[in-house]
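Retry 2 of 3 after timeout on previous attempt. Resubmitting structure tokens to design endpoint.
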């Protein structure tokens, strides 16, 4: 299936055109990339059936993009892209992932200083060459340097939400082989940590050599580090290592527990075993005579140690083992239990799809309600709505609610921008007409901690504000959270009955797990939203659920697990 690589190349084309200051075309490439990703069939099959004309019916795809797609499928290349790459031979992907460095800046830096890599850029910053360029200054140089440092801290860890599709594909590929009785991803992936160092997959197989031969032929494998009958290590094209281990069937549960971790959780478990005079390792639980007491399943290991089975998302040795011993583990929120999405952008601002398209997709996913929250006017780059346009959108939603009666409820909302002084950019009389108002910070990230905290508190104090969206503003691997006293925000949320959001967009996950846990302890209510800017993003809700589970949240902590009527009476 070549859809993902074609989408990636189209995006790359868009970036190169943006570099050169070409108008409009970059957006078309971006849109086309989305369309190809959203296609639920193999692009080659699609073209066989529908031809080039079919391609041109996809949003964003015109004659020239359609030809490029066909060219790539025929020749394995897009000539224009190859030429652009030759002309500007830089590591675009890495450079543009640095906060504050966009395509146009990459182009300028290459032309002026020959900067091709992140190392070149760092050196130029340290030698103060950037600040001397026209259009740059001391401040922008410092900002770029900060961005580089933050990028490097990520240490090559990849964002969970972005790699889930590939890991799922790999697991089903291995299952389809018929060579394995069990195939389960363990490690941080199973614990749903927000970033992943590498993937650890466990299998049970009678034909381990054959299974390993088959594993290394997975189309996404780019390099084989080592291949053996019990352990094989590869690199995947998405920039992630994956290990496959074949373990004996009678040890499968012990191996799964061991390789799921975390390390600290494992150590505590082993100490428990030792206290009983036993031994616990990746092969099983053994008594004094080295006789195996448990090992086939995880459940029997936990049981023999006197514990309830602990969900992987909780296994961080943060008190879960003590609770499991007393039979007092919380009943975590379940996957698939979110009934409404409360942060959704549309093509009224910077979203890819219309309100109707988002609504149709939400219906497909089984949601009972969806709240349209486009950006507001002071976020000019998104085409943010002013009062007049918001009122127009509300009228449109009234109409659509008639059309979709009995299928889904559409709530009127907005992602209102919090200005520097904590006031909002939309008049209260208009906010009062909305069903659900999320307020968020999109600028002035560098205010002093107490000023930033007061700024957010001022927004929370506005009786029209229901929720604070992505409360800490971080973007994983790109931008740290702004300085803010999160404990004070959580306390103030309790006082003002403001909801705090768990933004489930893969590189946000904001609130993050430890903050969620604090809200749970203080009884502050949360919602899980996708922050969708395209129909493809509505599926991120379960990623938010995974982080809520890591924060020990139960259904009652997350109010969009409620059915529409109950939810609606809470926010009105
Ligand atoms: P990652 O890959 O950095 O995102 O994090 P993990 O948790 O997947 O760590 P990884 O891949 O190094 O190892 C997988 C699991 O194996 C880990 O969660 C627990 C177990 N493990 C690894 N090293 C040790 C160790 O030295 N002691 C114990 N008890 N367990 C270990
Ligand atoms: Ca791992
Ligand atoms: Ca590993
Ligand atoms: Zn947006």
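Retry 2 succeeded. Sequence:
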């Amino acid at each position: 299936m070549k859809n993902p690589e074609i989408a990636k190349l189209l995006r790359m084309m868009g970036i190169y055109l943006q570099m050169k200051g070409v108008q409009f075309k970059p957006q078309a490439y971006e849109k086309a990339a989305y369309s190809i990703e959203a296609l639920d069939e193999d692009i080659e099959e699609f073209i066989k059936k529908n031809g080039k004309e079919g391609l041109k019916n996809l949003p964003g795809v015109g004659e020239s993009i359609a030809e490029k797609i066909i060219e790539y499928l025929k020749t394995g290349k897009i000539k224009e892209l190859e030429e652009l790459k030759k002309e500007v031979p830089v590591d675009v992907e890495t450079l543009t992932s640095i906060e504050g460095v966009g395509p146009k800046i990459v182009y300028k830096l290459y032309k002026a200083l020959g900067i091709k890599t992140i190392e070149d850029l760092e050196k130029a910053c340290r030698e103060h060459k950037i600040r001397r360029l026209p259009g740059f200054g001391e401040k922008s140089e410092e900002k770029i340097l900060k961005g580089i440092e933050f990028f490097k801290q990520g240490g090559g860890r990849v964002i969970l939400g972005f790699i889930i599709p590939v890991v799922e594909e790999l697991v089903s590929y291995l299952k389809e082989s018929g060579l394995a009785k069990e195939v389960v991803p363990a490690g941080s992936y199973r614990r749903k940590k927000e970033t992943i160092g590498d993937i650890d997959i466990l299998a049970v197989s009678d034909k381990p050599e054959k299974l390993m031969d088959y594993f290394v032929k997975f189309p996404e494998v780019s390099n084989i580090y080592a291949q053996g009958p019990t352990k094989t290590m590869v690199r995947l094209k998405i920039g992630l290592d994956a290990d496959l281990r074949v373990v004996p069937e009678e040890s499968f549960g012990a191996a799964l527990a061991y390789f799921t971790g975390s390390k600290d959780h494992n150590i505590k478990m082993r100490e428990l075993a030792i206290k009983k005079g036993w031994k616990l390792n990746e092969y099983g639980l053994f008594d004094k005579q080295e006789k195996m007491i448990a090992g086939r399943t995880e459940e029997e290991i936990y049981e023999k140690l006197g514990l309830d089975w602990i969900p992987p998302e909780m296994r961080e040795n943060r008190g879960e083992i003590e609770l499991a011993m007393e039979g007092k583990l919380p009943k975590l929120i379940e996957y698939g239990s979110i009934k409404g999405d409360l942060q959704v952008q549309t093509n009224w601002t910077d979203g890819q799809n219309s309100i109707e398209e988002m609504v149709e997709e939400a219906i497909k996913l089984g949601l009972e309600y969806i709240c349209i929250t486009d950006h507001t006017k002071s976020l000019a780059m998104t085409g943010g709505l002013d009062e007049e346009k918001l009122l127009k959108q509300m009228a449109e939603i009234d109409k659509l609610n008639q059309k979709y009666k009995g299928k889904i409820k559409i709530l009127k909302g907005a992602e209102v921008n919090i200005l520097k002084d904590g006031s909002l950019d939309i008049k209260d009389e208009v906010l009062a007409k909305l069903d659900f108002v999320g307020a968020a910070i999109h600028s002035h990230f560098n205010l002093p901690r107490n000023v930033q905290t007061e700024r957010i508190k001022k927004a929370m104090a506005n009786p029209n504000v229901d929720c604070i969206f992505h409360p800490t503003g971080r973007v994983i691997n790109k931008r740290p959270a702004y300085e803010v006293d999160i404990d004070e925000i959580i306390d103030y949320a309790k006082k003002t009955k403001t909801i705090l959001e768990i933004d489930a967009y893969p590189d946000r996950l904001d609130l993050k797990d430890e903050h969620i846990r604090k809200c749970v302890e203080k009884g502050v209510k949360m919602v899980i939203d996708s922050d969708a800017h395209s129909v493809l993003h509505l599926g991120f809700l379960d990623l938010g659920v995974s982080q809520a589970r890591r924060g020990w949240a139960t259904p009652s902590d997350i109010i969009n697990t409620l059915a529409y009527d109950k939810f609606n009476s809470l926010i009105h």
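Attempt log closed. The longest helix spans residues 3-19.
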